[in-house]
Amino acid sequence: MKKNEPGTRVYPLLITGVFLALLLCFSVTAWAAQPEANKPPLKTQLIDDMKDKMEIVYVIPRPATIQSALESYEFTFTGDITPNFTDSYTSGTKIALNLGARCSDGIMMVFGSQPVDPRDLEKLGAMILKFTEKLGLKEDLQEIDSFKTALKSQDHEKIRHHIDLLFAEAETVLRTKGDNSMAMLVSLGGWVELLYLVSDELVRNYHAESSKILSMDYIVDIYIRTLQNLELMVKDSPALSAIAGKLPEIKKHMYNPDDQPLPLEKIQTIHAIAANLKQAIETP
Fold this sequence. Notes:
The protein has 284 residues and is mostly helical. It has helices at 29-33, 42-50, 63-72, 92-111, 118-134, 144-153, 156-177, 180-204, 208-211, 217-229, 231-235, 238-254, 264-282, and one strand spanning 17-18. It is globular and about 45 Å long.
């Protein structure tokens, strides 16, 4: 079954979507452990391994899988991240989107090569926790205290590890509560932010192999179908309407059936769209 054929069941690579989002849990480790000569293309392997496990994306991206995806494409993040610290959102949609976006900022802050201001990291962690509280998750998350301790330690490996655990727990809680749409919005917000950050890096420092990581039209397909199923929510949210309206254009520029490096011109276009969607998400 082809990846874009109707009815195809995939559990896609996320970066941003990390990806990642944007951006979805996947198995890079097993792929990386294979002898080089025996490795299938990473995208094909991920789809083949996961296509029977999930019909639709309602999964919060986990930092460990995002990091593996970035590293597998030789991606290095050199930019400075200045997170948006607005926390005055009142709608559940905006809170969920921005929770995902701020989580992506945290992931990239500890992944990147630039020094991180400890005050920004602690402030970002506090905002993530505030958003989980606004979504009614705080009382159900046992990992919160360990996450706070990791933030204070300033140890990036510990921070990454405990963000990973916090995400896994949040995913379980959202599933248990049956709030699939909210889980999807967290995932979508994280994916848009990661799309912005990764495309920004590639515009500034183009790298042919790393550019392939943006060849994820199959992920965009899933978000398109998901938002179609949330039609009323999309109509009530300018941010979701903006995202839904631009996803087909993003898909067009990401389409890359031969897994060749994406041209810089396409990445510049993707980055411009992602910047506008980021603004739509972050505007109170």
